[in-house]
Amino acid sequence: MTATVADADATAPAAQTPTAGPVPVGRILRFELVKQFSAWRVRLLILLCWIGPGVLVFAIDKQSTLPSDTLFGRWMHATGWAGPLVALGFAGTWALPLLTSVVAGDVFASEDRLGTWRHLIIAIRSHRRIFAAKAVASLTVILLLVVGLAASSTLGGLLAEKNLPLVGLDGHTLSPGDAAGKVLLAWACVLAPTLALAAIGLLGSIALGKSPMGLLLPMLVALGMQLAQMLPLPVAIRLALPGYAFISWNGLFTDPTQIKPLMIGVVVSLVWAVVATVLAYLLFLRRDFTNLTNDGAGRRVLALGVVPLAVVLALTAGVVAATTSDAGGTGITQAKVQKSVATAFGHLFRLQQTQMYHSSVTEAQLATTASCLKSEGLGKQEGSGNDWRCTITFNVPGNNITAQGIYQLDITANGRYIADGDGPQEVNGYFLIVTPGKVVANPLWQFDGNVDLL
Amino acid sequence: MDTTVAIRGRGITKVFGDVVALDHVDVSVARGQIHGLVGPNGAGKTTLLGLLLGLAVADEGTLEVLGAPVGRALPAPDGVSGFVDGPGLYPTLTAKQNLATLAALRPRDAVTSDIGEALHEVGLAEVADDKVRGFSLGMRQRLGLAAAMLTKPKLLVLDEPANGLDPSGKKQVHGVLNRLVAAGVTVILSSHRMDDLEALCSEVTILSTGRVVFSGPLNKLSDETRELDYRLRTTDPAAAAAIAAETPGISVVAGTDAAALADTDVIVVRAQVAALDQLLSRVVRADIAVREFAPVVSPLEAAFLDLTEQETDR
């Protein structure tokens, strides 16, 4: 541009226009929240999360057939505290990845879609503050949705079956207060993997812009992690995946609690959340908003997105392997299976005695043991599969005799199993027990259990 | 420090990968004027506007906006407002909410205009509570202008603000811009609409392939360009054509698109501005009434085509 006034350097006094101070993050956050809550899909999600689970849990509870293939589903008629745990199992598989996709996966991409980035940068003039406000806003909405899921499903469960004791994953009974605390803690634990998925959502939203892939990334990652959990992977890799805490909360419902896998899962999820957020931040800072179709973006996504997260996965797996014993195997050994099945049977036998108003018996009196074989003893006695068969031996209360019962076990790669009674009828009984005043499910007909992988 | 200069840049260069978007551009724009920015697609207009708005920083060179240096660690100063590639509006919010949220992002003392007043100014007061989702392109443009005016702009950077406007909306926007300039605001106006630029701008800059090919007053641009074609509509086109043919420096153009128009009382002549005075005085002296006399292509458009084609051919 040739200077039309360039040479007219007047000697007027300096009147430099000051640069305005930065806009407080609180104000930007409010702006982001207004945008979030004005979007129909977010309003719909809030409505669904605060009403849907309660209605669903209540409705399921009123059915005669319960979702016994879902963890704690078989106990929904017994206590109101089973409902929120069934909802938690479903949320970890589908709802939470979907919510993080819709909220975190879109928080940056929506500006690309609406063409509002430049407007925002001009108004705020700080990439750092925009990033912080958007991250906190999406986190706020996600927390609101998770709290809604937890509160609604708890309310639905309690309205349907009241505040009664809950049978734990190893058959021991938790008092209503204890159950309430652990249900709350379990929901709190899944916040960690939810944060990790949210951070991956932020990363995808920035890296992939208005591409649908950005929105789908948390869902795809969650799906990938679920598939990985179904494979017979070494425990170290299983625990190094940020979605493991979506599963490991069930360790809270055993006695003693299987706290180590849960803690590792939570820490790993938080590490992923931090790393993915930092990477998203670095990508955002390097973005050029005058050139919205910068062809260098693909290389940056690879360099600042995919490669670092792969390194985190490898490092985490290495640390878990180095600090825990037997982390290189599947974690499902014959000894662990036998111990778990014997413990669960002992607890549930006592429960059955109580339900049938028989005289109480201690576990020491029962002296339950289990002998388990995989594939009829052929091959390696380790790992997941539906070919585990256990023979339970215990002292029959009141009689000086020993009884045996057979259970077929279907153990999944993450250690969870369903034990299905295979006779004799005197031990397994029938599907239902008629007790004075109520017909209840026979706890020894079929029961859930969990093998501690560590 | 020069208080009469709104923008001063020296040797500004901006590169995207292998593409040189701006190539050692010198910029100087005086305060209190509407300065047009034109150029073919890919000339570097949006990049230059982005630098002015603080969306990016130059790879080389220096840039001062409203007397304050702009750079990587120095964002554009307060008082700079505007939009590039259309106004950024949120469709799920109403017009009023869009402005209110924007106002909330600004330092409190920087927001001087009342939201209602700004909406009234651009003719959107009646749809203040309607969601932007249902707005036409022209309405969005006007709301974007209201958003830019909501703060206390000393420099307004607008990219195609008349895009999608009907004649009434265009008149309203022109009125707003003229009032702002009268109040001392500097406006940088990028547009492909030469009629808008000619109606509003006192000076213009033409960019081509990242370089400045012209910058200065519009009349200077007109002087510097080649001969232009003019439509001359008279009561006696045959006599007018004969006079034109005899007038030095004038040639009667035949077979052009303009001449092919159905108007039988129109001739098209080609001349420099100076020769036109003689032609018109001769036509009038011959008792031929002049009903219309206008350039077929505006001087700015002709210069634009001429200069940018030269640059492309280089």
TrEMBL record, chain A:
<keyword id="KW-1133">Transmembrane helix</keyword>
<feature type="transmembrane region" description="Helical">
    <location>
        <begin position="301"/>
        <end position="322"/>
    </location>
</feature>
<feature type="transmembrane region" description="Helical">
    <location>
        <begin position="184"/>
        <end position="208"/>
    </location>
</feature>
<protein>
    <submittedName>
        <fullName>ABC transporter permease</fullName>
    </submittedName>
</protein>
<feature type="transmembrane region" description="Helical">
    <location>
        <begin position="130"/>
        <end position="151"/>
    </location>
</feature>
<keyword id="KW-0812">Transmembrane</keyword>
<feature type="transmembrane region" description="Helical">
    <location>
        <begin position="261"/>
        <end position="285"/>
    </location>
</feature>
<feature type="transmembrane region" description="Helical">
    <location>
        <begin position="215"/>
        <end position="241"/>
    </location>
</feature>
<feature type="transmembrane region" description="Helical">
    <location>
        <begin position="40"/>
        <end position="60"/>
    </location>
</feature>
<feature type="transmembrane region" description="Helical">
    <location>
        <begin position="80"/>
        <end position="109"/>
    </location>
</feature>
<keyword id="KW-0472">Membrane</keyword>
TrEMBL record, chain B:
<comment type="similarity">
    <text>Belongs to the ABC transporter superfamily.</text>
</comment>
<keyword id="KW-0547">Nucleotide-binding</keyword>
<keyword id="KW-0067">ATP-binding</keyword>
<dbReference type="Pfam" id="PF00005">
    <property type="entry name" value="ABC_tran"/>
</dbReference>
<dbReference type="InterPro" id="IPR027417">
    <property type="entry name" value="P-loop_NTPase"/>
</dbReference>
<keyword id="KW-0813">Transport</keyword>
<protein>
    <submittedName>
        <fullName>ABC transporter ATP-binding protein</fullName>
    </submittedName>
</protein>
<dbReference type="InterPro" id="IPR017871">
    <property type="entry name" value="ABC_transporter-like_CS"/>
</dbReference>
<dbReference type="GO" id="GO:0005524">
    <property type="term" value="F:ATP binding"/>
</dbReference>
<feature type="domain" description="ABC transporter">
    <location>
        <begin position="7"/>
        <end position="234"/>
    </location>
</feature>
<dbReference type="InterPro" id="IPR003439">
    <property type="entry name" value="ABC_transporter-like_ATP-bd"/>
</dbReference>
<dbReference type="InterPro" id="IPR003593">
    <property type="entry name" value="AAA+_ATPase"/>
</dbReference>
